[in-house]
Amino acid sequence: MSRQVIHSDDAPAAIGTYSQAIKVGNTVYLSGQIPLDPATGEMVEGSFDDRVSRVLDNLSAVIAAAGGTLNNIVKLNVFLTDLGNFAAVNQAMERYFDDYPARAAIGVASLPKGADVEMDAIVVID
After folding, report:
1. How far apart are CA 7 and CA 123, in angstroms?
2. Distance of alpha carbon 77 from the chain centroid
3. Which of 2, 56, 48, 1 lies closest to 30, judged by CA?
4. What is the CATH number of domain 3-124?
5. Are 53 and 46 within 8 A, CB to CB?
6. What digits encode the pLDDT tens for the residues 73-88?
7. For the chain, which residues make up each domain, given as ranges?
8. Strand partners, 30
9. Are strands 102-107 and 73-80 parallel, antiparallel or unpaired?
10. Residue 100 needs a FRET pair 20 to 30 A away by CA distance; which of 22, 53, 87, 119 works?
């Protein structure tokens, strides 16, 4: 089975020693995305909803580079520095998904670059 590095210029470049995603067979393993603007590499300004939307847009760009869409996500992990933002994540997901993936929401003490939300995913593309 082949292993393919997936990269999209429409998502932020990796800020460490990792790939945006790795595809093995029809499964894509996405690294975590935080609300970085891919054009500037800076954190998105604005509301928490703006930041969640940027994270989902970043994930979408990487998945598109692998040949899929957000609706191909089978498992989504959401990392939050404040679980009080859980409802806002649900509202954003209602806008972005037709069918909801399996999901975990995990409260964490901190995230890279001071982000308050990060998401990673496992995607299956038929």
Report:
1. 15
2. 9
3. 56
4. 3.30.1330.40
5. no
6. 999 999 999 999 999 9
7. 3-124
8. 21, 121
9. parallel
10. 22
